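Hello forum,

I keep getting stuck at the same step: I have a sequence, I want structure tokens, and every attempt I make locally crashes halfway through. Rather than fight my setup again tonight, could one of you with a working pipeline run this one for me? It's a single chain of 507 residues.
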Amino acid sequence: MDRLESVDPTRTAIMVGDQRIDYGRLASDVTDSANWLAGQGLQSPQSVGIFLKHPYWSWVAHLAAMRLGLTVATLTSRYAQEVTAAGGLNAWLGENASGPASAAVERTILFSPQSMLPLAQQFEISSPERSKSGIVPRAASQRLMFSSGTTGNPKGVLWNEEMLEKRIELARSSQGLTADSILTSLLGTDTTGGFRYPLAVWRSGGCVLLRSGVAGTDRSGLTLAQLSKANLILTSPVRLQDCLRVFRQTWDGRDTRKMIVAGGRLPSSVRDAALTLACRNISIAYGATETGSIATGDSGLLDRNPGAVGFVVEGASVQIVDANGRQLPAGQTGIVRTRTSYMADRYVQTSTNASSGAFRDGWFYPGDEGILFADGLLAINGRLSETLNLMGVKVSAADLEMKFAQLPSIREICAIMIKVGSADLLVFAAVSDDDAAMRGLWQQIKAQIPPGVPTRLVRVPQLPRNAMGKVARPDLEKHLKKYFASRESDPTAKDSFSRDLDSSKND
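Reply #2:
Ran it on my machine without issues. Output:
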């Protein structure tokens, strides 16, 4: 809030569709919102969960709550799980009363501006203790993030104000953000990047483009015209692939646009398509909600190693270790562990085992397998939990998925080992509307998988994904188990998840 008021008030801070919101208007709305929230009885160090669908008013509410020194959490449709992971909240701030009916939330506060008019024209603003600046005295805020990765179980991670400041500043400096930056984020405020990059752009005096419609999980929420207004796009590999699939023509402004891709390995085929159609360069980034930024670099590094995620950034440390925690020499594959000066040291409201498994001896273990080269380049092979044991041969699911996803007409694919009865079954779940492509994929799978490994190929309408676009494997496993159980009882049965079983035998 203080930094918003230090920028030229006539500069454009936000664009919602074709409407421009300058820094003066944004600062005024945030001040009025903070006073309104204070009038509702919220004060530091209380905690509030925010579940607002309108992108502009959601940001205003977040900034206002931070200005009051509250502990602020962005809630999603999984709010019941998130409230539990937070250990309870003092208040729920939403557009209606359909929030979590739980003793873990003390009260619901309705906040529902009906237009883009200034808040003071829509709400009666009052505050019990205004300072000379017209707002209750500022207090240090905290940010409560939820890290679920691909486990499907939210884990609360608390950032104090110093940690958030360091993460914002690193985003600004490492990506060269300036007052000329015009950012569109394809990641929501519930993600690490989707929260701190807009803050970093505002810190730099730049502009953030928001969707004019309702924010949510709909991947088609932005038009090509809106995307083309940005000279900086924050995305994940999956979100980028979606955009390139929908918008296949050359994007206006391509030659002056940069993309930042975070949240997973970037296939070189997706990079090449993006550089051809959408932008002049791509920066890949690697980090975690628990630690912040770890590595970043140009996407040309993928030509050196397909799992490259950049060079280790200043202030971060990375080691590759074996199963006993012994550091391995440069260039060897092993378990990744990281630490930064702006990292958390535990999860909020989880079992001791959950925290001790991830936070050990001053290090955070993200659950990745990787390689650290002598010059500081970090490459990620995949998730340790997603390593497939095929007749004694360990294979990266990510490597198989990247290879098969490049086949024509295969939009998405996931390789997962599930247990059906007492037997392990390797399942490839693929998204495709082309029967011939599915038959070709099956032939490719049979050529890659050792004989004797029970393998199936299932066609699905879509893969369940988390906020970063990563496959939510527990959800996929649950649906696949249900599917195969129904097949055993009725071979003709199909459910809403699985449309077709392409082959049931590895022959």
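Residues 168 and 196 are 6 Å apart (CA to CA). If your local run keeps crashing, start a new thread with the error log.
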